[in-house]
């Protein structure tokens, strides 16, 4: 299995050791050609406006969308959730494949970054431990979700980990913690 890390900007390198610890190789994807070489894709946290601009300039939006709609598992983290979302701050999202509306930077600026324990409702992830330290860095807030979207975890009442088929989205950063449970779950999709 080859996992792609979208490597245009942001925290993509932090996923490598988690994937390697699970015996998985990864490929850094920087163009439409790279999308053909992978079985799954992680869209990292970072800055969604910058990534969105590059995705557009490098003509990656349509092929990425096509592969996701075709069933390729994808995991968006923070800015990645913004890119996957159907609606962003009231306007259509870049990839428009995940039936959620998000509000960018809804919890405050960089200085308002925080670690909050979140309760996860699926045993596959929690390994018997329910509270997971969620690292939130200028996270988007998921303000609405469609009927096909399952909410696996909330923080302060808001969904922070959702799934729609093989599309997984976390508004916090599991790659910055020690455990690979989220990576393992993503590989199971
Ligand atoms: N605020 C950023 C954005 O909207 C996301 C921040 C992050 O990925 N940690 O793109």
From TrEMBL:
UniProt-listed Pfam families: SNO
The keyword Transferase appears for this protein: no
Transmembrane segments: none
Gene Ontology BP terms: pyridoxal phosphate biosynthetic process; pyridoxine metabolic process
Reactions listed under catalytic activity: L-glutamine + H2O = L-glutamate + NH4(+)
Molecular function GO terms recorded: glutaminase activity; lyase activity
Catalytic residues in the record: 78, 173, 175
SUPFAM superfamilies: Class I glutamine amidotransferase-like
GO cellular component terms listed in the entry, alphabetical order: cytosol; glutaminase complex
InterPro entries recorded: Class_I_gatase-like, PdxT/SNO, PdxT/SNO_CS
Keyword terms of this UniProt record: Glutamine amidotransferase, Hydrolase, Lyase
Binding locations of L-glutamine: 46-48, 104, 137-138
E.C. designation(s): 3.5.1.2
Family: Belongs to the glutaminase PdxT/SNO family.
Protein name in the entry: glutaminase
Species this chain originates from: Desulfococcus multivorans DSM 2059
